[in-house]
Amino acid sequence: MSTMKFCRRDNNILYPKEDRDRRTLFFACRNCEHQEVSDNNCVYRNEVHHTAGERTQVLQDVASDPTLPRTKTVRCALCGHGEAVFFQATARGEEGMTLFFVCCSPDCGHRWRE
């Protein structure tokens, strides 16, 4: 993991630069001529750690979302309503995309996938 580097001469921050001819990365001070060859090609790394509450979930009011496509070619197995919204997402523990449906009946909201 890369960390902040500071100039040995004047303690200013060293900024990443590249030498395209030699195909190397180095850090250079902007106030003096000090330069150091980088021991790692990683300049910046952003690690995102999710908590369980931040993961994507299907919400109850997804049926009223006007941006999602609707279909009348499926029937809800619980209430028999003939309209549902649908979208693709990755299912937990599975690879690839899954097609999800949500019943548009305001009294139902049943969710299923294909």
TrEMBL record:
Keywords: DNA-directed RNA polymerase, Metal-binding, Nucleus, Transcription, Zinc, Zinc-finger
GO cellular component terms given for this protein: nucleolus; RNA polymerase II, core complex; RNA polymerase V complex
Protein name: DNA-directed RNA polymerase subunit
GO biological process terms held by the UniProt record: maintenance of transcriptional fidelity during transcription elongation by RNA polymerase II; transcription initiation at RNA polymerase II promoter; transcription-coupled nucleotide-excision repair
Primary residence: nucleus
MF GO annotations: DNA-directed RNA polymerase activity; nucleic acid binding; zinc ion binding
Record function comment: DNA-dependent RNA polymerase catalyzes the transcription of DNA into RNA using the four ribonucleoside triphosphates as substrates. Component of RNA polymerase II which synthesizes mRNA precursors and many functional non-coding RNAs. Pol II is the central component of the basal RNA polymerase II transcription machinery. It is composed of mobile elements that move relative to each other.
SMART domains the UniProt entry points to: RPOL9, ZnF_C2C2
Organism encoding this protein: Digitaria exilis
